[in-house]
Amino acid sequence: MNHFEYRGGRLHAEDVDLAMLAEEVGTPFYCYSSATLERHYRVFSGAFPKGTLVAYSVKANGNLAVLKTLARLGAGADVVSGGELKKALAAGIPAERIVYSGVGKTAREMRLALEAGIYQFNVESEPELEALNTEALALGLSAPISFRVNPDVDAGTHAKITTGTAETKFGIPWQRARTVYARAGAMKGIEVVGVDVHIGSQITDLQPFAAAFARVATLVTELRADGHAIARVDLGGGLGVPYARDNAPPPDPAAYGAVIAKVTGGLNAQLILEPGRLIAANAGILVSRVIYVKEGEAKRFLIIDAGMNDLIRPAMYDARHEIVAVEGPGSAGERYDVVGPVCETSDCFARDCALPAMKSGDLVAILSAGAYGRVMASAYNARPPAPEVLVKGGHWSIVRPRMSEDALVELDRLPSWLEG
Ligand code: LLP
Hints:
alpha/beta, eight-stranded parallel barrel, nine-stranded mixed beta sheet, TIM Barrel, Lyase, Ornithine Decarboxylase, Chain A, domain 1, binds ligand LLP, single chain, 2 domains, about 30% helix
């Protein structure tokens, strides 16, 4: 459920007319709906027992305004870099609700997180464990950790967003877990608190989750028998969202919650969850204007002013995002390949997309673009990425302005031998 709908034939974000907004801020732009973010957060957290930490995965959409909207509802944060940690803290997410994942935490980033006093490090390798122990001891602290275990379960999602199989760089092999926990248990700068798992993203089948979580549950029992005080299980993110109307709807948070309750209910451990996409994807759209309608030899192209530099998901993951006309859903009787201006064939948002007859200057909205959209944008082709707007009821605000082309040029520096 989201709050983008047609009123009088014009697409609105909550009570804001998007064609009006396009006039005000220019195109392309991302537009997020506060009500949708809030609803998704509430529905998701409502599917779990009291005391569960819902640590929103900042990587999905790290705009400060988005983070603060969620922070006000009590969200924690799952961060993967010093930058994300700083963003989460700046948005008012308390350190004791922040977990830190990722295979390549540097000593500097560890120090930042230790000094902030975060809730938990999700450690992904033995060298990382050693480095964290060293940094914690140097600061006279002890770092609360879970190991991210790799359960070797195939989540059945796109290969580029699969993380829970033995071939991926993530986590420690579950077969080695007890040995590694024993090492950690003996370290003065480390406090073992839990077990962590994350098997991938855009997962639309609950079975792989159940299989992975069952491994975690068994491991928790074994680790407790080994003498570790396992008080938390972090089950990561990954629950998929509907991207297109004709897709089978993915399982809802309640069904996911039921699977988790069944597998981990008896463990008497705090649950931590790290949803990203589920909170943000359908709370955001990318609004773009048609530059040209081009009649090709074999195809008709809608060339729009957003490009793969703004939204890379179709090019990178073959992702399908629904595209609609902003003014008038119309008959959708025409077919277009919707493409951007970037000089790459992969700069294509949709093939044979059904839309009403479009002309230069018309607006389209690329839906479900709130997660892994603007955060993955680049300035490729020297195109400043799309700005971001947050809507709340009838109010809207630019929460990340458009960078000018001149500002982009000024970011480069000339070495002394090329000056003048
Ligand atoms: N926790 C960890 C440790 C993760 O690696 C991820 C996502 C999440 C939580 C959040 O997963 P979510 O609930 O959003 O599925 N750029 C890709 C997705 C990459 C996901 C990476 N990890 C895309 O656009 O599909």
